[in-house]
Specification:
Elements: E1 3-4, H1 13-25, E2 38-43, H2 49-60, E3 64-69, E4 77-78, E5 91-92, H3 93-102, E6 106-110, H4 118-122, H5 125-134, E7 138-140, H6 148-161, E8 168-173, H7 183-194, E9 198-202, H8 211-214, E10 218-219, H9 223-227, E11 232-236, H10 266-270, E12 276-278, H11 291-295, H12 301-323
Parallel strand pairs: 1-7, 2-3, 2-6, 4-5, 6-7, 8-9, 8-11, 9-10, 11-12
Helix pairs in contact: 1-12, 2-12, 3-5, 6-7, 6-12
The structure holds phosphoric acid mono(formamide)ester.
The site of phosphoric acid mono(formamide)ester (CP) has 9 residues, from α2.
Length: 324
């Protein structure tokens, strides 16, 4: 595996889940695979789970790890080509990337959407520059449009907690005071479409996700109807993806005070089949979900986070096996 961005990069999901199970049973089984190999984790944005779980995964495989926080200690990087660099950015990404590639064997990238230029974000410009100019295998640690390590961990978690062969999984939009990217819902939709689940998406009109990720999945604008009979509720906020109106890309379409009926509370969960609550974290309590729902025994937010170590170990193992 030379690139990990989309579910297709993973191949057969049953095989991927079997590897996850193998790693979970013995997370140090491949502890010499990464000997004398170095992972460089490049963060353009903050992180708690991705930073810790991916570093732990690399350590499980015997790798060395370097972490670069681009906005805390490195030169400020210009990412656009053709600009006159007379501002505060001292180095261009097109030199920085091949330099980074000199010091490592594998690169993980966290680079969120800017949410101003839809074409730039949806082309995954920064990720593809790393892939092209580093000369190393590259994987997404949440990029402009996707967060596959999260989606894989979510799939592992659903597999571990499902009570029927084909559970009903609902992705629901929930309110948030800030404009957030679509990476998590995009990847969750893409991976659920590829998995053997009954998948439904619910959100207010105007927040339609890109068809490239959702395919022809059922979108139900009535949240209550969507929740009926659900086995898993996956809550997430996202800003307008700009599918029907590109001018709205990255915007919050309604004042969040008017959208609090979308917050997942006990009444919402009573519409379900005693569903598990899921969220990628970090989560804003009282906005996305109420305290009682996230603290309930049916909440899976901590097992999901724990499975980030497993998904990252499987992905790094695949990459190391391909570069040996
Ligand atoms: N879910 C997730 O990616 O968390 P962090 O942003 O803390 O890494």
């Amino acid at each position: 595996m030379k690139s990990f961005l989309n579910v297709q990069d993973m191949g057969d999901l049953r095989q991927a889940l079997a590897e996850a199970q193998e790693i979970k049973a013995d997370r140090f089984k491949y502890d010499t695979l990464g000997k004398n190999k170095t992972l460089l984790m490049v963060f353009f944005n903050n992180s708690l789970r991705t930073r810790l779980s991916t570093q732990k995964a690399a350590m499980n495989l015997g790798m060395n790890v370097i972490v670069l926080d681009v906005n805390a200690g490195a030169w400020k990087l210009e990412t656009e080509r053709g600009v006159i660099m007379d501002g505060d950015k001292s180095e261009h990404l097109l030199e920085a990337i091949p330099v980074m590639g000199c010091y490592c064997d594998v690169i993980g990238i966290r680079s969120f959407a800017g949410l101003t230029d839809r074409d730039y974000d949806y082309a995954e410009t920064v990720y593809h520059q790393f892939l092209k100019y580093s000369g190393k295998p590259v994987f997404a640690m949440e990029t402009a449009t996707v967060h596959p390590l999260q989606a894989f961990a979510d799939l592992i978690t659903i597999e571990e907690h499902k009570k029927s062969n084909r559970p009903k999984v609902v992705l629901t939009w929930a309110p948030h005071p800030k404009s957030l990217p679509q990476a998590v819902p995009n990847s969750f939709a893409q991976w659920m479409n590829a998995a053997d689940v009954d998948f439904v998406i619910t959100h207010p009109e105007g927040y339609e996700l890109d068809p490239k990720f959702v395919g022809d999945v059922r979108v139900e604008y009535d949240q209550k109807k969507a929740f009926e009979g659900a086995d898993f509720i996956y809550a997430k906020n996202w800003s307008c993806p700009g599918v029907t109106n590109p001018g709205d890309y990255g915007k919050i379409l309604h004042d969040y005070h008017q959208m609090m009926r979308w917050t997942v509370d006990a009444e919402h969960m009573s519409w379900t089949n005693n569903a598990h609550f899921m969220h990628c974290l970090p989560v804003r309590r009282g906005m996305i979900v109420t305290d009682d729902v996230i603290e309930a025994p049916t909440s899976l937010v901590i097992p999901e986070a724990a499975n980030r170590e497993i998904s990252a170990t499987v992905v790094l193992k695949r990459i190391l096996q391909s570069v040996k």
